[in-house]
Design goal:
The chain has 376 residues and is an alpha+beta fold. 39% of the residues lie in helices and 21% in strands. It is built from eleven helices and 23 strands. 29% of the residues are buried.
C-alpha cells in the first residue's frame, strides 16, 4: 500500500527569518541550506522566534534548493529557516524507514526539475511523493539492515582517516615538526632542485571527450595524490602547448590558484595513460637524486608548507602564485635514503587504504541493491 507523504508525516516549512539580523556569533543558531547535510550552523540570528521552529537532534530536514538532500540534524538545537523543511513522522511510519526512502523520491524530483541557475523543490512536489507503507515491524527491519550497512561504511571511512593521521604522524616521527625543524636539517629553496617548471593551459574545452587521455584540474589534486574520480577526458591536440603541459611519472603538481597548495604526484599509471594539466596547476619536475617528490608533497601539505602558500599569495582579491613564488618555497632536505624510506611507508599504507576503499565500494553497491529491492 502506498500513501502520500503528508499522510504519513507532518511537513513543516521554515520561517523567513530577517537576514538583517543574522550574525556570525550572537543569538541562536539558524539552519541554512548549506547546513542541512553537515548538521551544524555557523549562522546566528538575534530575531525573536516561536518554539515550534526549534530543530532538535536527529530531526529529519530537507534542503529545498540546489541538491535536494535529506539529513538528520546534529546535536545543537537550531532554528528552521526558509527553504528548509522538517519531516515529523506520524504513528504509521518509522522515522529511519522514512529517512532511507526519501533520497530516492527526492532524486527523482531533482532529475525532472527544470532550472536556470538553481533547482527549487516545491511544496507541491513534496506533497505528491508516494511512500510504500508496510507494517511497522517490516519498516524497522528494512531500516535496521540499511543502518548496519551505513555503520560499516562509516567504520571503513574512519579507518581511512586514521591511516591518513598515521602517515602524518610518521612524517613528524622521521623528520620532526616541519615548522620547528628540531633536527636542524638543511633548509633550502625548492628552486635548487627543479629541473622543469610549468603551468597548465586554458582553452581545452574544445578537446573534451567522453574517453581519452586525462585533463587534470584542482579538484583531482589533493592530499598528496591525484584522484581520477570525475576526471575530464580529452583528445589532445598535436602541438607545442600540449607537449609542454603533458605530465610525466613522479611530477609534482601544486594548485596555484583558488585553494592554494594542494599537491599530488603523477603515478606511472597516469603518465602512461596520458595526462595534461589546466592553468590552475603547476607541474614541477625535481632532481630525484636529491628529493623524493612524495616527501616534497607531504612537506608542502604540512603546516610549514601551508603557511608559505598563504604568505606568498600574490593577490588580495583572487588567490594566486607565480613562478617566482614557487621557486622561493623553502623546505627541509633530509637525506634521500630517509625520504625514500618515508615514501615506502606511504606506499604500504596506500595499499591498505586501497583495500579499505574497495570494501567501501562493495558496501555502497550492496546498499544500492538493497534500496532497489526495498523501494524499487
Amino acid at each position: 500500500m502506498k500513501k502520500l507523504l503528508p499522510e504519513v508525516c507532518t511537513i513543516q516549512y521554515g520561517f523567513p527569518f530577517d537576514s538583517a539580523k543574522f550574525s556570525d556569533s550572537n543569538g541562536t543558531p539558524l539552519i541554512r541550506i548549506r547546513d542541512v547535510v553537515r548538521g551544524y550552523s555557523e549562522t546566528y540570528t538575534t530575531e525573536e522566534y516561536k518554539s515550534e521552529y526549534i530543530v532538535h537532534e536527529n530531526d529529519l530536514l530537507i534542503g529545498m534548493d540546489g541538491e535536494f538532500n535529506i539529513a538528520k540534524w546534529g546535536k545543537t538545537p537550531a532554528l528552521l529557516n526558509q527553504r528548509v523543511c522538517r519531516l515529523a513522522p506520524k504513528d504509521s511510519i518509522d522515522k529511519d524507514y522514512l529517512f532511507y526512502f526519501m533520497p530516492i523520491a527526492l532524486k527523482r524530483i531533482e532529475e525532472k526539475t527544470p532550472f536556470v541557475t538553481v533547482k527549487h523543490l516545491s511544496a507541491k512536489e513534496l506533497n505528491k511523493i508516494e511512500i510504500p507503507v508496510l507494517s511497522l515491524e517490516e519498516q524497522r527491519k528494512i531500516a535496521e539492515t540499511l543502518s548496519k550497512v551505513d555503520e560499516l561504511i562509516a567504520f571503513r571511512e574512519q579507518q581511512l582517516a586514521k591511516l591518513d593521521e598515521l602517515v602524518k604522524a610518521r612524517f613528524v616521527e622521521m623528520f620532526g615538526d616541519a615548522k620547528l625543524n628540531p633536527n636542524n636539517l638543511p633548509c633550502c629553496s625548492l628552486s635548487e632542485y627543479i629541473v622543469f617548471l610549468t603551468s597548465g593551459s586554458r582553452g581545452w574545452s574544445q578537446y573534451f571527450t567522453d574517453s581519452g587521455e586525462y585533463f587534470i584540474t584542482i579538484k583531482n589534486v589533493k592530499n598528496c595524490k591525484i584522484t581520477l574520480q570525475d576526471v575530464q577526458c580529452v583528445t589532445p591536440p598535436d602541438n607545442a602547448e600540449a607537449k609542454r603541459t603533458r605530465v610525466q611519472e613522479n611530477d609534482l603538481l601544486i594548485s596555484i590558484t583558488a585553494d592554494l597548495g594542494r599537491t599530488g604526484i603523477v603515478t606511472k599509471k597516469i603518465a602512461e595513460h596520458g595526462a595534461y594539466i589546466n592553468q590552475h596547476l603547476t607541474c614541477i619536475r625535481l632532481k630525484q637524486d636529491k628529493l623524493n617528490p612524495l616527501y616534497v608533497a607531504y612537506y608542502m601539505e604540512s603546516d610549514a608548507g601551508k603557511e608559505q602558500f598563504i604568505a606568498k599569495n600574490q593577490s588580495a582579491v583572487k588567490a594566486g602564485l607565480n613562478f617566482n613564488a614557487i621557486n622561493s618555497l623553502k623546505l627541509m632536505v633530509p637525506p634521500l635514503a630517509l625520504q625514500n624510506q618515508f615514501a615506502a611507508f606511504v606506499g604500504r599504507v596506500d595499499q591498505q587504504k586501497q583495500t579499505i576503499q574497495q570494501s567501501i565500494e562493495k558496501l555502497e553497491l550492496m546498499k544500492k541493491a538493497l534500496m532497489q529491492e526495498y523501494f524499487g
